[in-house]
């Protein structure tokens, strides 16, 4: 009797996964290639840096050679102790469209990136704001053009794709990039379904007016992380959010190279999810629970060989539609090579996520310093 119940539970779990991967994530996975219509509205590119001198040397030349008629670059130095500020000041003297914001350590907002970003946003000259991190590089000289093309009278938020660089012969790199692919497929899929819930600060745009009218980060200023996802979760809706996923709109970051540093990064990201809306916490929890239950129920039923042909059929069906959905998404986001190890990577991620959850219960992750 108990195994029959477990078999029914597995079928329900597979059904839940089918709805997610085909009808929700599929809104992005199976969407047509995106067409870009030029938009020459002035843009303020905002970069916040703390001890990022070496990365800035890579990023800045790319920002200065964008094929876009009118834009400025706002460089925020958040109390760096290396030569970041000196570089910024030199750039400001050389380029008329560069503006530097110097942030001093503030006892109330100590080591809070949101405070630094707020200062930068307030001095931005233009109404459309485009964000990336100091350790990122745009994939092309048309980055601003493609991201800003999605702005319109109604669309005030643009969600972009922040990818990670590929490292040959690194299995950890495939894990990181697959997780990034899955996360992007989720937030793109939900945005296309009319329920946007997050974006990534590595590649994100929104209007200054929206930021100021919504109170900016005031509702979660005390939480060190979440300058991207918590803000988007707070202000986005079906009518004001668009997505941009052309290859020229991607940004690329250097990925973590050890499991421990990646694990700590995941802890920071996960710690903000508890502040999402009730619906978003529910849908994310249901998605993860269905992944975990699928693995556990499959193992139990196959070990005890209960209706193993039926179980195997459900497993094959589940991997078939998930592989197809993620395959189409990976094609759009140039991550196809991560799918070779998909079943193994997925299991690793499921139990890593579980580990992150329990670890965060007993200790707080380290944030922006």
UniProtKB/TrEMBL annotation:
GO terms for molecular function: glycosyltransferase activity. The chain crosses the membrane at residues 6-26, 284-304, 310-328, 340-362. The keyword Transferase applies. The keyword Transmembrane helix applies. Pfam families: Glycos_transf_2. Keywords: Glycosyltransferase, Membrane, Transferase, Transmembrane, Transmembrane helix. Residues 44-178 form the Glycosyltransferase 2-like domain. It comes from the Bacteria. Belongs to the glycosyltransferase 2 family. This is Glycosyltransferase. It comes from Flavobacterium profundi.
């Amino acid at each position: 009797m108990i195994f029959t119940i477990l078999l029914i539970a597995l079928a329900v779990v597979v059904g839940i996964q089918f709805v997610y991967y085909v009808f929700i994530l599929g809104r992005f996975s199976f969407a047509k290639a995106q067409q870009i219509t030029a938009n020459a509205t002035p843009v303020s590119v905002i970069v916040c840096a703390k001890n990022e001198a070496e990365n800035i040397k890579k990023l800045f030349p790319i920002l200065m050679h964008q094929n876009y008629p009118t834009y400025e670059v706002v460089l925020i130095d958040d109390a760096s102790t290396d030569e970041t500020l000196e570089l910024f000041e030199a750039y400001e003297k050389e380029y008329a469209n560069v503006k530097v914001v110097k942030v001093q350590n503030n006892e109330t907002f100590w080591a809070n990136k949101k405070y630094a970003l707020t200062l930068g946003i307030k001095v931005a000259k233009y109404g459309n704001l485009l964000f990336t991190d100091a350790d990122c590089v745009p994939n092309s000289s048309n980055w601003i053009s493609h991201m800003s093309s999605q702005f319109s009278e109604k669309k005030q938020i643009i969600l972009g794709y922040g990818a990670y660089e590929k490292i040959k012969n690194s299995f950890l790199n495939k894990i990181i990039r697959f997780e990034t692919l899955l996360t992007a497929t989720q937030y793109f899929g939900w945005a296309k379904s009319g329920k946007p819930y997050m974006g990534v600060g590595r590649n994100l745009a929104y209007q200054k007016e929206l930021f100021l009218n919504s109170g900016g980060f005031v509702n979660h200023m005390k939480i060190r992380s979440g300058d991207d996802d918590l803000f988007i979760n707070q202000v986005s809706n079906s009518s004001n959010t668009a997505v941009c996923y052309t290859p020229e709109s991607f940004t690329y970051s250097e990925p973590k190279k050890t499991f421990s540093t990646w694990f700590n990064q995941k802890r920071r990201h996960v710690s903000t999810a508890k502040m999402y809306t009730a619906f978003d916490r529910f849908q994310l929890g249901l998605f993860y629970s269905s992944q975990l239950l699928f693995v556990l129920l499959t193992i139990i039923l196959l070990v005890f060989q209960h209706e193993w042909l039926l179980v195997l059929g459900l497993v094959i069906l589940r991997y078939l539609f998930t592989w197809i959905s993620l395959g189409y998404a990976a094609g759009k986001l140039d991550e196809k090579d991560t799918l070779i190890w998909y079943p193994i990577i997925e299991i690793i991620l499921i139990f890593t996520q579980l580990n992150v959850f329990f670890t965060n219960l007993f200790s707080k992750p380290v944030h922006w310093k």
